[in-house]
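Cast an eye over this sequence plus tokens and explain the fold to me:
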Amino acid sequence: MIKPLIELAHVDIALNGQTILRDITWKLRPGEHWAILGANGSGKSTLLKLIRADLWPAPGKGKRIYAFDGAEQTSAVGVKEQIAWVSPELQERYLQQEWKLTGLQVIYSGFYNGDYVYQKPGARQMAFAQGIIRLLGVKNLLARNVQQLSTGELRKALIARALAGKPRLLILDEVCDGLDARSRLHLLEVIEAVARAGTQILYTTHRPEEVISAITHTLVLDKGRIVRQGRTSLHSTGDARIRPRQRACSRSHAQHGTQPAQAKVLVCVQGATVYLNRKKVLHAIDWEMRDDQNWVFFGPNGAGKSTLLKLIFGDLHPAVGAKVRRFDLTQRNTVWDLKRRLGYFAPDFQANYREGLTGAEVIASGFFSSVGLIQKVSRLQKKKVEALLDSFRLATLAGKRVLQMSYGEFRKVLLLRALVHEPEVLLCDEPFDGLDLQSKAEFVETLEQVSRNGTRLIMVTHHWDDLPKCITHGLLLGSGRVVRQGQLDAVRAHPDTQRLFRL
């Protein structure tokens, strides 16, 4: 029998006094590629950390054995050098760095299994890195500050970093989140090629169409226990095209009970150009939103979608000469007057929460548009938080510390944070990434209900089939410019939209 490279035998994992994984028994043998599946909070990311030696088995609760070089060892010495890891948490770590790192520095750091480049790479290393850069098509990211990259662009840089170290095992945790359809397909092809070349893959995803055909085995977790494992019949067809579900036609003005002339302008952007680190990211954007509309912004990675959201929210400002009007606010109003009327949900929020706040405290911070609680929460505010948690059946997260939550659980809490003060407009940047299928379906219905209650929506997404039916209008961006905007069905028919989503 082939000797396993990694073996877990009856392992428990406990964090902060809470048992996260129970009686985990599993083996990784040469040539195997595993998909690790399960709902949010099932323990997938914890299992990956256990395998990578970021976590240790609970004392007296099983054993973990490595045998990469033939000889068995229970220590983690020399293990991490042979295991590369890419995940949303790794991405957050780079967003928290105080040093400014370029894309090339991040890729070179993969040679040393650290966050920084501790010495100049050799000629062979640099030549190898150039091959990876060409393979992933990330040459345009090399000189840029990684904290200014889009979610998808930074994800590509981290994949290149992982491959630079020539790992024996590549752990990929929801790596397609934040990537446009073309980039997803390209990345899946790269992962297939890496697997064929001999690097073994451990892979998690909540989207069945993203399971690569190289996967040979599947492990399913539920509430911290393995409920199924073995050879898999779950394969990608080799065609990960995005097939949209049947959508209702866009709502007409009459369906909202208003006529076009009666609809009030909520947000108006005129001639807005935005620079980040002296780089022009948005070019003379003209756009407006009325109170009978729900919008989706889309475009390839780096098109400027998240930047436009931040401009609307007031976190970024346009160059001189532009105008951005929101509601009936004037220069006499403060930024807090604005943020009391806007809700904002974005993936980079998770990188800001380093404190040991509970779920309820994170949600309550939405009253103050702050990361932590900058003032005492009133009794009425506490009741609103409790009601919101109950309505979404998330009361179990109220007292749970954010550092104990899964990635998907934390995203749910952050969405409730954006809703807690009942905003007039809710801005959602990739709200469904990291959510399992059931949670995603529930959140789609949540946004539908929010819209029915009168809150208008602005979404960013790379998945056409994620769109709630209440979305009425679309804005297609390309290289920081408006390519097309208007009624959703008309924008969907645009050739660039068809190519972007592979419709």
The mean pLDDT is 86. Residues 192 and 214 are 6 Å apart (CA to CA). The chain has 14 helices and 18 strands.
